[in-house]
Amino acid sequence: MTGHNREEISEATRLHVLRGLRRGEIRTGIVSAIVNFGVFVDIGGVDGVISVAELTWKHVSHPSEIASVGDELSVEILDVDLDRQRVSLSLKALLPDPWQEFAATHTRGRTLSGLVTKVVPFGAFVRIADGIEGLLHNVELPEHAADAPDSIRREGDVLRVEILDMDPVRRRVALTLPGTPGPTSAGDAQPR
């Protein structure tokens, strides 16, 4: 490598390395950079990117919650674009899907505790299992709370909720408060 510019060597070998990558292949690499939209991983002379959506099954605010520069990661190659010289990677593809276990062990009507993770104008998202959030829609709140839903749920609150409806294919769960007769039926619910 003496006498050669690093960029020249990298450019000369880049296409060769890219051509050797295959979709579905598992590679080990080193985190080279973290940006708002994802994590760059050096997989043998080529940087691939793991988008935020492919980092984990859980919601994260920033990629730095999952990885740090210098970390060694095993990743799955999702796509190799030779024309644009880009490699898309996934860390999530190598992790167990929390929906498989959740759908097998939880049914409509089950009551459980959950953490309010986000309040939106139409309701609140409640984490009911690792990697699983459900929607507690405002219409599912008791009548006395209809005008002041924040009196029932705020971010960080722990609530007892009941599974109103579940759609594992779309990865959505509609929630209600136990014992609260809501005006919607399970078919009308808009689960997340």
TrEMBL record:
Signal peptide: none
PROSITE patterns: S1
Biological process per Gene Ontology, one example term: translation
Single GO term (MF): mRNA binding
Superkingdom, taxonomy of origin: Bacteria
Matching InterPro entries: NA-bd_OB-fold, Ribos_protein_bS1-like, S1_domain
Keywords: Ribonucleoprotein, Ribosomal protein
Descriptive protein name: S1 motif domain-containing protein
